[in-house]
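Example record

One chain of 169 residues, shown exactly as stored in the release files.
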Amino acid sequence: MTHAEIPHDGQPRRRVGCLTLILDQEDRVLFSVTTYKQRPILPGGAAGKDERFDRAAARELREETGLVRRLSHFFAVDQTPENGETGSNEGLNLVFDGGVITDEELAALAVPEAAAGEIAGHVWLREDEFDGALLPATAARVRAVLAARKARQLLPLLHHGVPVSELPA
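Predicted C-alpha cells for this chain:
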C-alpha cells in the first residue's frame, strides 16, 4: 500500500505507553502494584494528546511513586497488540531510563495520596524473580530492557528532530 493510499483519517488508533525503568543499588527493578492489573507493572502510563513522551513518562512516574526524573533516553520500544478482553488499542510502550534510586529517594518512596485509588503499592524484583510474579510479556519486556541497559544501548528521544534533553522539561 502506498503512502497516498492511506487516508489521514483512516490511520489506526495507537496507544503510546511511557514507562520508566528504575533500579536500586542491588539491581532490583521497581514495579507498581496497581488496583486494576493482575500483576505488577513498570511505573508509567499512556501519553495524552499532544503530550511529549518524556513528559508523560515523568508525569506518570511522579504520580505513581513520587519520584521526580528528567527523562531523555529510552532503552526499547515494545509494540503491543490490541487486547480484545480489555478493549485496549494496539500500541507502543517506550521504556525510559530512570537510573538508580538514591538512598534518600528510597526512604521517601511511597504511593502518593492522589494515586491511592490506582496504585496499591510498589515491589522490587530481581530478574530471577520475574517468572510467576509478572505477566510473561512484562517479564520479557523488562529482561530485554535490562539487556539493553547492560550493553549501554540507549536511544535519545527526539521531538521534531531535537533531542528532548535540549528542550525545556
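Notes: The CA atoms of residues 31 and 146 lie 14 Å apart.
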